[in-house]
Write a structure and sequence with these properties.
The structure is a single chain. The protein is mainly α and 171 residues long. It has one domain (2-170). The protein has helices spanning 2-8, 14-23, 52-57, 63-89, 91-94, 101-121, 152-170. Helix 4 packs across helix 7 (152-170). The N and C termini lie far apart (36 Å).
């Protein structure tokens, strides 16, 4: 999974790579503990504004679904920018494909805490500056979770998304 994430980034959308990693048990990609989930498990509400650029052009998010979509989009952009900074900082991360999977995992475990430490301790670090401005990346989430349509899992995640959206509205 880590290999695919770094080899295909830019050519293939990361959410699709993530879903593929979850569908391939031989990759050993971890599933979240019971009661937890990945951001990608809770896709945005369809038919509602989603992309941050849509909110910048118009009014603030209105209603439970738009509030959820706005927060979801903001988190997704933060994660994407984090990976971009990480790959720019360490050449070894850009060359993950040349290592066996177990070594890739060790590289991630070693480098991400360093990345986080630098981010927290050095607010003016030059590697972060280009990424501190939110991007207008337009990502199409259609068909990403196609295989789960109508499944019990999809219904559970829709209920969880509604629960989170309601919590966001009340906070």
């Amino acid at each position: 999974m880590v290999q695919e994430r770094f080899q295909l980034s830019g050519a293939t959308h990361d959410a699709r790579i993530f879903v593929e990693a979850l569908r391939r048990p031989h990759l050993g990609f971890p599933h979240p503990p019971k009661g937890k989930y990945y951001l990608a498990d809770l896709g945005p509400y369809r038919g509602e504004r989603y992309h941050l650029a849509d909110f910048r052009r118009g009014s603030q998010p209105r209603g439970m679904k738009e509030v959820f979509n706005h927060r979801h989009s903001s988190l997704r952009c933060t994660i994407e920018r984090t990976f971009d900074v990480w790959k720019n900082r360490w050449r070894i991360v850009r060359q993950m494909h040349s290592f066996p999977f177990d070594k890739q995992v060790k590289i991630v475990v070693a480098s991400m805490p360093l990345h986080n430490f630098i981010r927290v301790r050095s607010k003016t670090d030059s590697e972060f500056k280009p990424y501190d401005v939110p991007s207008n990346d337009e990502i199409n989430y259609e068909n990403v979770n196609e295989e789960h349509r109508g499944s019990v899992r999809e219904m559970e995640m829709n209920e969880e998304r509604d629960r989170i959206a309601q919590l966001l509205m009340s906070s």
